[in-house]
Amino acid sequence: GAVVSQHPSRVICKSGTSVKIECRSLDFQATTMFWYRQFPKQSLMLMATSNEGSKATYEQGVEKDKFLINHASLTLSTLTVTSAHPEDSSFYICSASVGQETQYFGPGTRLLVL
Amino acid sequence: GENVEQHPSTLSVQEGDSAVIKCTYSDSASNYFPWYKQELGKRPQLIIDIRSNVGEKKDQRIAVTLNKTAKHFSLHITETQPEDSAVYFCAASIEDMRFGAGTRLTVKP
Fold first, then answer.
1. Cβ <8 Å between A46 and B96
2. Using the beta-carbon criterion (under 8 Å), do B97 and A34 form an inter-chain contact?
3. pLDDT per residue over A27-83, tens digit each?
4. With an 8 Å Cβ cutoff, are B99 and A106 in contact?
5. Does A103 reach chain B within 8 Å, measured CB to CB?
6. Pairing of β B19-25 and β B32-38
7. How far apart are CA B78 and CA B75, in angstroms?
8. Cα–Cα 20 to 30 A to B10, which of A29, B17, B24, B60?
9. Going by DSSP bridges, is the β-strand pair B103-108/B10-14 parallel, antiparallel, or unpaired?
């Protein structure tokens, strides 16, 4: 149990375009979903926390207008990187939790902006 | 906010030896401390966790200890095997989880 999927697994896009990443909890309802960004050989950096039906809470330094998060249901959250630039290239990982404790991670999405 | 420091950044051991990774945290209100294992290109996987009302927890070859007074917790892996090679992350959580920088463990056969 506790499976989280993420789509797409890999995306290459041109600079200036927008990219949407989906995160789904497949066999449980997630009260909270988290979006992380991971640079090569570095730790996971929390970008934002989202609760179903409410606005996401962004970490300091994360542009909410650039990284749009929608948490439409208890099993789906989306992250849209708007007007992507090469510096946005990274590994984006979502996680889902029931309550505030154990988080189950998606497989990640590798974004490359050319 | 919470700040988690993790040491060492790299660790190399011989197969069969023990490995210890240490983390410190800054916010005494943190009450949940998970450890994740991340293999190259894959998602982090929870391997063990401990809550603030417990001092030690063991699961086969893996154990975690927590010292609330000193605000540090450690991961212990005994009888290491090559498949234990990965990056290990500690984390501390009140509501949001903050991760340590990670430790790249290499187990030499």
1. yes
2. yes
3. 888 888 999 998 877 788 899 999 888 889 999 999 999 999 998 888 999 999 999
4. no
5. yes
6. unpaired
7. 10
8. B60
9. parallel
